[in-house]
């Protein structure tokens, strides 16, 4: 694979997000991605092996960004575990509010790519979820969160709720605005686990 020149790799990834959001990963064609990116179709193969490689890079970028930002939040001793929890939820929603097409790709394609690329799906997904668990553990240790909470179940409950609600938003954004979803998830989870 060639070293990135200019912004072609970024342009290809942004175009792929748009195309995947519009027609879905399985119906997307490299030629259409190249057209939207305003590059020659052959140029795409200078940066990516195939369409799956593009999708993997999109998810690598999402989860690396989320992990890096959550790591900074978790290490901040000036804020409480609940403030860290709020910030974690905000991170997830901010990334999708900034780029609604990315939310559609996340909702529609993460399960597929995790199953098909299981042995090399991004390490940052698990790292992000593990940091979330550490924040909950900190809340338990500081007696702000009930110790009867099963952290693994809470972990998947939170992300399952977010994914399901993002699916509803994708179908009916008027009745499920992302900011309303964000606030409700934060309220339900936070006050449902508060001691």
Structural summary, described in words:
Helix content is 75%, strand content 0%. The protein has nine helices and no strands. The protein has helices at residues 8-23, 30-37, 41-47, 51-74, 81-98, 100-116, 123-141, 151-171, 178-193. The radius of gyration is 18 Å and the shape is elongated. 25% of the residues are buried.
Quick overview:
It contains nine helices and no strands.
Write the SSE topology:
Layout (H helix, E strand, L loop, with lengths): L7 H16 L6 H8 L3 H7 L3 H24 L6 H18 L1 H17 L6 H19 L9 H21 L6 H16 L2
GO molecular function, one term: DNA binding
Organism: Stygiobacter electus
Protein name: TetR/AcrR family transcriptional regulator
What spatial form do the alpha-carbon principal axes imply?
elongated
CATH class of the largest domain: Mainly Alpha
Mean pLDDT: 89
Specify the CATH architecture of the largest domain.
Answer: Orthogonal Bundle
The tally of structural domains comes to 2
**For the CA atoms, what is the radius of gyration?**
18 Å
Query: Percent of residues in helical segments?
Result: over 70%
CATH superfamily grouping of the largest domain: Tetracycline Repressor, domain 2
What name is given to the CATH topology of the largest domain? Tetracycline Repressor, domain 2
Number of helices: 9
Low-confidence stretches: none
């Amino acid at each position: 694979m060639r070293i990135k020149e200019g912004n072609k790799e970024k342009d290809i990834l942004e175009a792929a997000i748009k195309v995947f959001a519009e027609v879905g990963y399985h119906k997307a064609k490299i030629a259409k991605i190249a057209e939207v990116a305003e590059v020659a179709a052959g140029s795409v193969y200078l940066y990516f092996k195939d369409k799956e490689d593009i999708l993997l890079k999109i998810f690598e970028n999402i989860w690396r960004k989320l992990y890096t930002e959550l790591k900074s939040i978790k290490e901040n001793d000036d804020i409480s575990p609940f403030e860290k929890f709020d910030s974690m939820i905000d991170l997830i929603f901010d990334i999708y509010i900034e780029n609604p097409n990315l939310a559609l790709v996340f909702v529609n394609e993460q399960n597929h790519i995790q199953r098909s690329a299981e042995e090399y799906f991004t390490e940052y997904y698990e790292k992000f979820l593990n940091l979330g668990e550490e924040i909950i553990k900190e809340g338990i240790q500081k007696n702000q969160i009930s110790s009867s909470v099963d952290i693994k179940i809470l972990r998947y409950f939170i992300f399952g709720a977010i994914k399901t609600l993002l699916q509803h938003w994708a179908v009916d954004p008027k009745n499920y605005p992302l900011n309303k979803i964000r606030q409700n998830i934060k309220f339900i989870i936070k006050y449902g686990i508060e001691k």
